[in-house]
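DATA CLASS: polypeptide
GOAL: derive structure tokens

***
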Amino acid sequence: MKRVAFWSLTAFLAATTVPAMAQSANPPAPAAAPSAPAAAPAAPDYSQVQEQSTDLGKGLYESTGAGGNTTVAVGSKGIIVVDTQFAPLYDKLRAKITSLSDKPILYVINTHYHGDHTGGNAFFFEKDQAVIVAHPQVAARMIDPPPGANGQPGMPAVQDALPNAPYGGNGTVLDAGSITALLQHVAPAHTDGDTVVIFLAANVIATGDTVSSASYPNIDVAAGGSIDGMIAAANFVLSQADRNTKIVPGHGPLTNKSGVSDYRDMLKTARDRIAKAKASGMTEQQVVDANLLADLDKRWKPAGNAIASRFPINIYRSLK
């Protein structure tokens, strides 16, 4: 299939036959924020990965395999997919989606640029002709990714993996018939191109990596992320949720408003401790050696998790 030009989402949809996009008259308020990506974990054995789906109700599903969690929304006109995991998992993820519905995939939404959330993009574009929607910074970062934590250069994405329909502003709505997705760009948190996706009718929120339910999150400082932005993004998710909201985090098990509240409180506690230490003149290494988050580690630092181990460093570097 011929590559679509990098147009605005409005222009793209005006030139195609996919469902029309609307702008919310009253978009939600954006989050607040300011500015060492984590070391990449070893690649999983993709041959052993099995996609597991959870029915969230009203046409919404969570699919978990390897990489970021995927949200699948089945509407009367077609399907919306939020995040595409690693490239080698496309066939397994696509088979799982097919088992849920035989409707066409209309949209892929990328919550940010990292390869464990965008790896399958090219296949969804080439094989499914999906419109790939993301904040403009996602394509910019995929084209020119920052180096990794150990200095290794970032690997630019192939052309067909790039989002072909960037959205601007907040309150953008994608329509799949009986399902609509509200896209909210929060100020720099995990990265500078984060999107939170709200499925209002189903009471489901997909947070991307602004929320992690199983461990400390990665804060990609090299791509504009910050601890203050992470706290603000968590607060935004909480403002959109009630006690029945099902929240799909970027990584970890399905959670809810109470779980995100606990996560937000952890972020605030970690930020306050490290900010106080930095203000007192402690160096980054002194903060690491002081083990200021020992009590939080019991819940939020899984053994052998390199990203979780860098959490204090990323907080320190993002503080202004």
